[in-house]
Design goal:
Blueprint lengths: L5 H10 L6 H23 L8 E5 L5 E3 H15 L4 E6 L6 E2 L9 E9 L10 E9 L23 E7 L3 E6 L4 E7 L4 E6 L10 E3 L10 H11 L11 E2 L5 H11 L2 E4 L14 H14 L3 E3 L19 E4 L1 H13 L1
Parallel strand pairs: 3-5, 11-12, 11-13
Antiparallel strand pairs: 1-2, 3-4, 5-6, 6-7, 7-8, 8-9, 9-10, 13-15, 14-15
Helix pairs in contact: 2-3, 4-7
The chain binds 2,5-anhydro-1,6-di-O-phosphono-D-glucitol and manganese (II) ion (3 copies).
The site of one manganese (II) ion (MN) has 6 residues, from strand 5.
């Protein structure tokens, strides 16, 4: 079987379908190259001295793992010199990272969660990298990029994707023309298109949520999970299964593959806490992918991609996956 490479796919998208500009194509190539380097570091584990924590805390108030910081550095270095970016933003950086003056600048903005699923690094469970691409606003031309230039709704993303470092390393990508899955061929060093046009099953009987937070959930989520747990004699009429990997990348990858619903809802912990996941580099790129695969993504009653961001590290409730289940959860929120 001969597979198309990522490069071939992107060139076709640029040339024949105009789904991607030359600039964004090069940017995706660079990000995917950085993901190869991260994958390599991840797979070395203890042998590469990459396990364990650093003493530092990030802007989220989380203790940084060595791989959080290493992956962030790999992405920064890979993307600084390409000439197609104005600035970058990351879970692991307090504020935006502008392209240094000695490099040419472009019009794109890159956002990333360099290493998703940090709590799974040291226990050898799948982890990943998530990224999102926006364009700098036209009025920013000729002046320095500011944090506010990043605060655009997810509908403005021109590309998004993730790499998952699991039994196989895969890159799952959208440029707004469906969702494509590429498997890393380590011998050749290339990404091969093994999963063309990924579609998310509309129905499911599998949910993913951290049940230990149940007492903090909002009422509509409690109602839904309670109905799931009642099984086929309950109002949903099905026996549900549960999975929770605690790496969003791995949970979303499973859901894109065989359906399901993923929830990290808003909850009542800490004052004003909106949920755990971050809008700009977790919720938005994953919502773009899920919608492109025929699924839905909401924060409760509303669509995630329509949210006007107020801060770079803003948190948001996330409910995404198979269309029928997410619509049901959305209805429960509207009724509440
Ligand atoms: P990160 O490792 O990038 O900080 O993200 C972790 C997130 C996400 O990947 C996962 O779905 C969730 O945190 C798991 O949270 P719990 O440990 O609360 O289950
Ligand atoms: Mn983190
Ligand atoms: Mn994450
Ligand atoms: Mn992370």
């Amino acid at each position: 079987m001969k597979y198309k490479t990522l490069t071939q796919y992107l060139v076709e998208q640029q040339r024949e379908h105009k789904a991607v500009s030359a600039d964004v194509r090069l940017l995706i190539e660079t990000v995917s190259r950085a993901c190869k380097a991260i994958s390599h570091a991840v797979s070395k584990g203890a042998l590469g001295g990459v396990l364990g924590s650093l003493g530092t805390e990030n802007v989220q108030g989380e203790v940084q793992k060595k791989l959080d910081v290493l992956s962030n550095e790999i992405l920064l270095e890979a993307n600084e010199w390409g000439g197609n970016l104005a600035a970058m933003a990351s879970e692991e950086m307090q504020t935006i990272h502008r392209i240094p003056n000695h490099y040419p600048k472009g019009q794109n903005l890159l956002l990333f969660d360099p290493l998703d699923g940090s709590s799974n690094i040291d226990v050898n469970v799948s982890i990943g990298t998530i990224f999102s691409v926006l364009q700098a606003p036209a009025e920013a031309a000729g002046r320095e990029i500011a944090e506010a230039d990043f605060l655009q709704p997810g509908t403005r993303q021109v590309a998004a994707g993730y790499a998952v470092y699991g039994p196989q390393t895969m890159l799952v990508l959208t440029v707004g023309a469906g969702v494509m899955g590429f498997t890393l061929d380590r011998e050749m060093g290339s990404w091969l298109l093994t999963h063309e046009n990924i579609r998310l099953p509309e129905q499911t009987a599998e949910f993913a949520i951290n049940m230990s937070n149940m007492r903090h959930w909002e009422a509509p989520v409690r109602r839904y999970i309670d109905e799931c747990l009642q099984g086929e004699t309950g109002p949903l009429g099905k026996n549900y299964n549960m999975r929770w990997i605690a790496s969003m990348v791995a949970d979303v990858h499973r859901i894109l593959t065989r359906g399901g619903v993923f929830m990290y809802p808003r909850d009542a912990r800490a004052s004003g806490r909106k949920g755990k996941l971050r809008l700009m580099y977790e919720a938005n790129p994953m919502s773009f992918l899920v919608e492109q695969a025929g699924g839905r993504a909401v924060d409760g009653a509303g669509r995630i991609l329509d949210i006007q961001p107020e801060a770079l590290h803003q948190r948001v409730g996330v409910i995404l996956g198979s269309r029928e289940e997410v619509e049901r959860l959305q209805r429960y929120h509207q009724e509440a």
